[in-house]
Amino acid sequence: MSDQVPAAGGWKAKAKRVAAPAVQRARDEVVRVTGSEVEALRAEVADLRAELERQRAEHAAALAALNEELAALTEPTARRR
DSSP code of 3? Predict the structure, then answer.
């Protein structure tokens, strides 16, 4: 039997090698389990972006209409002078 103890780095490297398959399986399982949730969240984000764009266009149209009304209201005043 040897009196020399392997370096701590050797134990650490061996532990990583031994644990790597289990860690990868755990990662794969997390991805599998949460995959549908992630897709649902992505779809929800896409819906929210579409709703934001719809509202932006709606507000832009409303502002344009208000600007036209304002221009029409100030136009006769300018003609009267």
Answer: S
DSSP codes of every residue in 13-41: HHHHHHHHHHHHHHHHHHHHHHHHHHHHH
CA–CA distance, 48 with 34 (Å, rounded to integer): 21
Predicted model pTM:
0.54
Residue pLDDT, tens place only, 24-39: 999 999 999 999 999 9
Structure tokens at 46: 């896409």
DSSP conformation class of 7: P
Structure tokens at 68: 């036209």
pLDDT band for position 7 (cuts 50, 70, 90): low
